[in-house]
Amino acid sequence: MANDASNTFVEIVAIDHEGRGIAYDDDKTLFIENALLGEKLTYKIFKKKKKVFFAKSLQILEASANRSKPICENYGICGGCSMQHYDFGVQLAFKQKAFEETLVHVGKVKPINIMSPVSGPGQAYRHKARLRAKYIAKKERVLIGFNEKLSHFLTDMTSCEVIPKKISHLLAPLQYCLTSLSIKDQIPQIEYASNQDRHLLVLRILAPLNDSDMAVLIDFQNKYDIEFWTQTKGTETVAPLLKDMVHYIDYINKEFNLVYRFQPTGFTQINPFINEVLIRKAMQLLEPKKMETIFDFFCGLGNFTLPIATFGAKVIGFEGNNHLVNAARENAKLNKQTVMFEQRDLFKVSKDHIDKFGLADKWLIDPPRDGAMELIKSIDKKKQPKKIVYISCNPASLARDAEILIKEKGYQFSKAGVLNMFPHTSHIESISLFESYDS
Length: 439
Fold this sequence. Notes:
By secondary structure, the protein is α/β, with parallel strands linked by helices. 24% of the residues lie in helices and 28% in strands. It has helices spanning 88-107, 165-179, 211-224, 272-286, 305-309, 322-334, 351-355, 373-377, 395-407, and strands at 10-11, 14-15, 21-25, 28-33, 40-49, 52-62, 113-114, 128-136, 141-145, 189-194, 199-204, 227-231, 239-240, 249-253, 258-262, 293-297, 314-319, 340-343, 362-365, 387-392, 411-419, 429-436.
């Protein structure tokens, strides 16, 4: 049945939390890509799992008024985006609805107040990404881009609307640049990082560059005002192409007058526009004050830790990755902020670990998709922080943790809202406030 095309149309009767249309055809339950509620369409099945079928739309017979023309010519083939066919405002409404429904269905919780959703640019927002590269002998060209949707094949793309225009416009000339190298078949990926001023391209190379290759790359970076870096093995081998180039990149938060120094392959937020709003909202909810002690869990480079410190609070940042801890300490020195950073496996943390650092007035939590369940469980009712600001990239794990906070730890779910950190994808970023009834 896989890859079969339908002979009759179906009607989309619901949308799942990944943004796919749901339809029924005889005994088949279909999850259909590029489909909106109420649309009638034909489809083609590409995957089957028990009685569930995954398909893509072939022909839209009756289109929804909420359908929008994709901004990118590669949409539908490239796997980088999944919601460009949604009107941009409808994308945000969908994410808000999916967020609230997940809280209710998974955690049986609901915030007292829903904050207005936050959105930003829908194009050129992604200032960090990892692109694949592959030399295709039949095309006699190196392809650069993202994987095709649900495939290991590489999208043949010469532009991308969600990455900075400078990088998008470079995709075509960069393909021909890499094709001219002696090691054109030894470059599997390119990771780029931009701070809106400098644009770094890290080439993962599996063989040494010769003098001719170096000349080609130097000429390209001078012509297009970009910086090539190379990576030969692990992240410790990441370095600028030339020794006299600057060995780091800075991201500046003008609102708090902070500089974040990071490596181009290290972790940092990919959407600087929404990240600035997120930091501002986190500070508004947390309300840091002088003489308070605040714990920042999963602190990374100090994205929230350093802004908290500017209010005069005593801040301790906890992070599991030692490289990030060291980078955060350097950022604190760079900004002349007195902040303590500690390496801790926050998925195995216990009450004793937290008690060691004393009582905190407030917590900020920004975990990966798995959430912060062990951390939440470690809260002692007798020494609980009066406020917890929880930033989440997964509504399901947030809902699970919120249920523990409310039903076991004595918190009220005061506020929550979504931010469109990753436009044109089903990814949902959110920020929530939990307050102790005793505060």
